Amino acid sequence: MLISLHVKNLALISETEVTFGEGLNILSGETGAGKSIIIGSINLALGARADKDMIRTGADYALVELVFQVTDDAMAQEIRALEIPVEEDGVIIIQRRIQPGRNLFKICGENVTAKQIKALSELLIDIHGQHEHQSLLYKKNHMEILDSFAGEALSQIKEELKEKYQLYTKLKKELDAFCVDDSAKAKELSLAEFEYQEIEDAGLTAGEDEELESDYRKMANSRQIVEAADKAYQLTGNGEQSAADAVGYAVRELRSVEGYDDRARELADELENIDALLGDFNREIAEYMADMEFDGERFAQMEERLNLLNHLKLKYGDSIQAVLQYQTDLGEKIEKLNNADVYKAGLEEQLAQLQTKLESLCQKASKVRSKEAAKLAKDMIAALTDLNFLDVKFEIQVRRKEEMASNGYDDVEFMISTNPGEPLKSLGSVASGGELSRIMLAIKTVLASRDRIPTMIFDEIDTGISGRTAWKVSEKLGHLAQSHQIICITHLPQIAAMADSHYKIAKQAVDDKTVTDIVQLDEKETVDELARMLGSDEITDTVRENARELIATARKRKA
After folding, report:
1. Looking at the domain assignment, is residue 310 inside a domain?
2. Is residue 18 within 8 Å of 5, Cβ to Cβ?
3. Which pTM value belongs to this model?
4. Per the CB 3.0–4.6 Å rule, which of 29, 136, 240, 542 could disulfide with 33?
5. Interval 109-132: pLDDT, tens
6. Burial (Cβ within 10 Å: 0-12, 13-18, ≥19) of residue 466
7. Same domain, 125 and 213
8. Would you say residue 441 lies in a domain?
9. What is the DSSP code string of 37-87?
């Protein structure tokens, strides 16, 4: 679950921190108080797009920190498998620092990628806003919901289907490439043979370009190398007042007094070792200079060979190894072109076998979807009835498309009738904004029994609802909060009254600047906030009593 949220220098927030509890966490506040900023900050920490304009005026950076705690050992192992650190007590700390031109993600102090953040968020939290409600209008999203409901019953089939479909499309592409006229095939074969022979004639050896470039560079700069080496040679052993002469003189001086002190003898011994090392060095550098003689013919040969290698690398790959691999691929291509009929027949046979397998997998997937669609439709009707759809009909149609895809050949569409006597119609053509939010809540409630995501956030779940329907939504959220941590932004007192923890988001002026803050309310403050949400111009004792009655009613409905 989400333990806490810490935000600093983000939009209207100077710095705030809030600790969330289990069950139903309600966030409320006046219109324009900054409720969207709170949810937006959570989204930012989980990888949503950010820009420098989000940084509070006068600040150098913005910071968002989320602290989660994972109590499911299997989920913790799954997270670690993503190479994401998890503390021993299951705590996961996500930080995002937003700076002009730079964004940093950290998990438990370690730098991570946006891809890792996304993978982690899919395991830990599910955020639902007005945009997601609207996604129900699009038929393409209905299959995803159904497949999510089907879970393990379908996942293995889909995985195998995807794998086989990818192979099918690859082989189909290869076969199409062979379906050309003889003249085009002859040109392709001629080009492949020419390229193969060009590489073959070069007699390439892996890594020779690097070795040759090193030798070429050495010979090209041989004059400078010899001059530098000769100077070193003169300074160390062969010139006037060389290091060797100086060391020899120093040895003689120390030897003249070694009989007076053991330490003098030890120092003389050390210097003699140095003298010997200098002698060895002088011999080696002399040999080095002798080997550095410039060979014009050899230099020209190296230059010619390098030009050839670079030419081949420019045409066929960025390294000799890549060029050799390209030649290997050419050999296979030539073999296929020379035996085109046989190879084509083999491809056709493989495709036929794959098509049969794909057809079988599509049938299995469709069978599972149809079975799970009936279950989901039944559960949806029950959930929608609980949400005050009085005479609702809900059906999931699973139809066959003409063309198969990586997820099968099924076309899934949610159909609904919200009024008696009305025929079933596509969800997208019937539902209003208020109905969509309730339908999405019903879907999430049904799916919650099958998913492992511990935390769910609802924003604008109360769009277009009031009265008895508001109570029904409140009850549904309360039920969902028994198995999940729920964080809900709402304007409705009926939903807020169901809270296990209530937070108020408020905007105020501090030092001539507008600041948004979030605070957890105690019992008395909760009553006052509910009184405000009831719409009274003045919070009187009577209004407060109405608020207390609202809380009492919510507790009865929750029990």
Report:
1. yes
2. yes
3. 0.67
4. 29
5. 999 988 899 889 988 998 886 556
6. exposed
7. no
8. no
9. HHHHHHHHHTT----GGGBPTT-S-EEEEEEEE---HHHHHHHHHTT----
